[in-house]
Amino acid sequence: MNFIDLRSDTVTKPTEKMRKAMYEAEVGDDVYGDDPTVNELESYAAELVGKEASLFVPSGTFGNQLSLFTHCTRGNEVILGEDCHILMHEVGAPAVIAGVQLRPIKSNKGEIDPLEIEKRIRGVDIHFPETGLICVENAHSNGRVISLENMREIYTIARNHNLPVHLDGARLFNAAAYLNVDPKEITQYCSSVMFCLSKGLCAPVGSMVAGSKDFIEKARKKRKIMGGGLRQAGILAAAGLVALKDMRKYLMEDHQNALYLGEELSKIPGININLDDININMVFFNMNDELYDMNNLAKEFYKKGIKINGPENGELRFVTNYWIKRKDIDYIINTMKEILNRK
């Protein structure tokens, strides 16, 4: 059965153009720096986000943790939002890899108050850890896009305190598409950025970390420590080049499909959605208890050829991607109505 997969945009598969590029990729040993396709990808990616250099890494979590590992020294404290991906969904890796302490701040749907950040920057005291880094996320993993003004204010505070800012930009290009800006308009407000080549861009593997030449030089060695020194990685980098050059233009279609999905779901009595929160390709919603037990929905959808995740913190999340078209959305809506009508 060919499933419609709403679990995440991580489930995307490479396009035929990517498969051809991977097959034909010129390769070398990237640890020696002689894989021409990786070198091309790193050069192109850095230019795309307005940074001096970039580095190919296996995954988004790898890229975020490598950035913390490179920016910080052991025992540092990292300031970040309480609901961000680095804190919530990266397996406690900051403690394991970088040996840092996280200091979370309550956020407003992913947006952190700059003044609350400034309050938490440590002074000099024998009892205090040293603040080493501020992390922000855009687009946020809750589906919201953070304003450029908020990012600018945080970056200004960080510079005033001589602190770096790392941007978890796993879905950076979704944020750029939503704001209708060049990605550089977002990444100007960070010292380093990680962005994924997979997810909505459809590459099978890989993310990029970008920053200054000095930062990337240090990160390259730290990547080797983490086991990320790949060899003939040009086969993967070839797909990444197609992702960055060709696939960004399709992200708005994913956003439009998500909004359409949300609008149609919201018409069903008992399904609760804030349509204003659908900024990118994610639809979060809950259902009244008397309408249906959300814990059973994944099994029912699976029978109809649709994969979804179960609820997390009382919410369901449907995620659109390049391979989900408008006709699929209509089928999803009709399936939801059919399941609820059987109750």
Which structural class matches the secondary elements?
alpha/beta
Silhouette: globular
* Major pleated sheet: 7 strands, mixed
Total number of distinct structural domains: 2
Mean pLDDT: 97
Q: Residue share in helices?
A: 40-55%
Number of DSSP helices? 14
Kindly provide the name of the CATH class of the largest domain: Alpha Beta
The CATH architecture category of the largest domain equals 3-Layer(aba) Sandwich
Strand percent estimate: 15-25%
Name the helix and strand elements from N-terminus to C-terminus, one letter apiece. Answer: EHHEHEHHEHEHEHHEEHHHEEHEEH
Number of strands: 12
Integer-rounded radius of gyration: 21 Å
Strand arrangement in the largest pleated sheet: 2-8-7-6-5-3-4
CATH superfamily heading of the largest domain: Type I PLP-dependent aspartate aminotransferase-like (Major domain)
Q: Are there runs of 5+ residues with pLDDT below 50, and where?
A: none
CATH topology heading of the largest domain = Aspartate Aminotransferase, domain 2
Q: Report the span from N to C terminus.
A: 25 Å
Brief synopsis:
By secondary structure, the protein is α/β, with parallel strands linked by helices. It has helices spanning 16-24, 36-48, 60-71, 85-88, 93-98, 114-120, 148-160, 172-179, 183-187, 213-225, 234-247, 251-266, 297-303, 326-342; strands at 4-5, 53-57, 77-81, 101-105, 131-137, 165-168, 192-196, 207-211, 271-272, 282-287, 306-307, 316-319. It is built from 14 helices and 12 strands.
Can you tell me about this structure?
This protein has two domains: 99 residues, Alpha-Beta Complex (Aspartate Aminotransferase, domain 1), CATH 3.90.1150.10; 233 residues, Type I PLP-dependent aspartate aminotransferase-like (Major domain) (Aspartate Aminotransferase, domain 2). It is built from 14 helices and twelve strands. Helices cover 42% and strands 15% of the residues. With 343 residues, it is α/β, with parallel strands linked by helices.
